[in-house]
Every structure is written in C-alpha cells, then in structure tokens.
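## retry 2 of 3
previous attempt timed out at serialization; input unchanged, resubmitting
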Amino acid sequence: MREECGVVAVCRKEQPAAGLVHRGLFALQHRGQEGAGIATWDADGMHFLKGRGLVAESLPTYKVERLTGNMGIGHVRYSTVPSDRTENIQPFVATLPFGHMAIGHNGNLKNQAALQRDLESRGSLISTSMDTELMVHLMARSGADSLETALHFMASRVQGAYSLVILLEGRLFALRDPCGIRPLVLGQTGDGFVAASETCALDALDAKYIGEVTPGELVEITPNGFRRTLLLEPGPLAPCVFELVYFARPNSVVFGQAVQSARVRMGQQLAIGDAEEGLSARPDIVVPVPDSGVPAAIGYSRESGIPLEMAILRSHYVGRTFILPDQDSRTHSIRLKLSVVREMVEGKRVLLVDDSIVRGNTSRKIVQMVREAGAREVWLRVASPALGWPCYLGIDTPSYGELIINRHTSVAEVERSLCADNLRYLSVDALKQATSNASFCFGCMTGDYPV
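## retry succeeded, writing output
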C-alpha cells in the first residue's frame, strides 16, 4: 500500500479541538479522498470518528461536534486500491503498555513486507494492510515505558518516510523522519497550537506559521507552546520534490518554499531551455492543462513573451484523474473534466504546459482534444523531468513498466505516442535551479532514493 495522506493535530487551551481539526482536514482534502478520521482526548479518554469518502461525507459536522476534548488529531487517506478497507482509515487507535494511543501517518515504509513477516513470526496479529499498524506493533514490542523510547526503537527498524501526529493519554506529539521526506509544519492559533502537513491547513485555521518540524524532531504540542526534542539523528536531507511539482496545494509553503512561486520558476526554466535550444518555429499561444499546469504556464509565458490563453476549461465537479482508482475511470472522466475553447486554438500552434506525465493516457487524450478543436500544431512542455521510477516513499505511482518513459526507447518515441508535434521535459538540473538547488529526493526521476 503506497499512500499520500494528510495529517493535522490541534491543542487548545479550553475549547474543543475537533472543529479545528475538521477544518484542517478540509484544507488538506487534496492529499486524500478515500477516507478521513478524527481522534480527540478528554478526561473520559479517547473519542474517534472515521468514514470513507470525502471529509464532508465521512465526517459530518453534527458528528464532529460530539467529539469532546481540547486536543485532537485528524487524517485524510489516499489510496488507489479499489478494495481498500474501512479498517485502514486512520487515525489508527491502539492500547500500548504506556497508554492508549491514536496515530496518523503520512508516508510509506519501504521495508513493510519484511517488517510484517518478522512481526507475524513473533506472534503479532496484523489486522490491517497499513504500514502504520506495523509501526505501532514495533512500539508495543519495544519494552519501553515511554513514547519517546518506543519511537526511537521503532525508528531504528523502519526504512522510509513518516510524518506522524500522535495522541497519547492527554499528550499530543508530532514526529518527522530523519530525512524529512514528507512535510510537517507548526503554527499558532488564537488559543492554541497546530501541526499539519501543509501551511494551507494553518491558513484555514487562521493560524500563524511558525516553521517546520525538522527532520528527526519530536515535538510535543501543549496549550502553551511546543517542547522540541531531536529524537532521531538526522539522515541525508531528502524532502520529496514531487510535493513542489504536483501534490502540495499552490498556496502552501512546503520545505520552506512557496509552492506557487516554485512552479512558476519551473515554467520559466522550460522557456529558458527552449530559447537555448533555438527552436525553428515559435508557438502562437501558451495553454496550461488545468489546474496543475497553470503556474508553470504562467512562468513560461512571462519568460518567453508568448501570450497565455486559458483555452482548456476544467469542470470542478469532477475529481483529479490521478486519484481515480483505475485507468478506465480516468479515461472516461477526462472529457467530463476538461473542454477546449475552439476559437482560442483553431489554426494556431499551441504549446500545452503540464506539471508531469505518468502513464501518458491523460496527456494523449488532451493533445487529441486540442487537435480536434482545430489546432494547427500541438506542442507539449512538461514542468518536471520524466518520471521513470516508482515512488516507494509515500506517493502512489504506477509500476516501472507502466510509466510511459519506460515503454519507449526515447523522448521522440514518447512524443509520437502522445501524438504531439513537439515534446520536451524539464531537466533535473533545471528543476534544481527552479527549487533553489535545495536538497531533494528525485527518486521518481533518477532512481536514486535516500533510503
């Protein structure tokens, strides 16, 4: 199970936390659409609510209002497995030797299969298919009498990405893995403190952004502030660059960078690359593939001077095709989701800009739609390098053989497969320049993983 999820944790002085957690999950809905859950704590113990589907469906407001307690955590789940089970919805709740605990996890463990075999051989009964449960079993078997010691034991045995929020016997914690692969940020509200996957959740709570949970850091969130401990020795810093390319919301600050600005710079780098190549022809218009291609298209247009036209319109009543569970669903949803304005493209050389190409099926259909609307030529610019390797660290991607770049021997063959007249990807070096040459994981683009 490879999943990209969102987490939020709230601690208030006196007021119930569930309402703020709920609002935070709405802001993080783009990180998971398969299920959501909230757990809170008060003098009577743990209270929780979970359900499948979007936050509005799975966590109705009238039920959330029944969750008492001034501290709580929440989780939105992403999975492309059609048979996903309700018991996989987080927060995962368990009783450990040192207390009753709820945990929410954004990330993925690369050694999940080996961990599960080892735990089952030692008598552990695994009730879900989540690697999060394996982390809890490791903590339970640590022999520790405190959360900190149990987390240290667990971290020494897992390989992968984890940004965690933990509710334990009236205490609230956030932990980020030593490589800092998945984002986790801290903020302050009028009457408490917050941790969340992205700053867009802080904005939804009218919370002031304080900074990131640093790699390897355990933060205890209290009504009066944060107690920060470097629990794990930091490893090679490797935040996921695909958060900036695609997954994070444009109004978020992720890994210290404004997402929208980084994506605009990616488009500028694409235009710089075209200028350096000295193309024999010049596009008439730049057209973004909505919504994820818009910032890069803005950057390309600014850098090149070619006018930007919103010639492809998106219906906001159809979800992201990347998240739909099977290719048939994705293919049939494209024409429902996107439509081309004929008078804007007819007779023109159109340069389409998108953030990435995965299998290529969506891109092929969009190129076809623009051509059917009368475009003279359809060029395609991709604001990231070719995705040639699966992600094992938190974003669900197809297998190696399903990725379009691996089904062909060259970019020219991919170009022909997509029925485009001209195709170019952003280079890894150009992406590094667009992201200020910061240390990132480029595993899905280079095959070089941090763990």
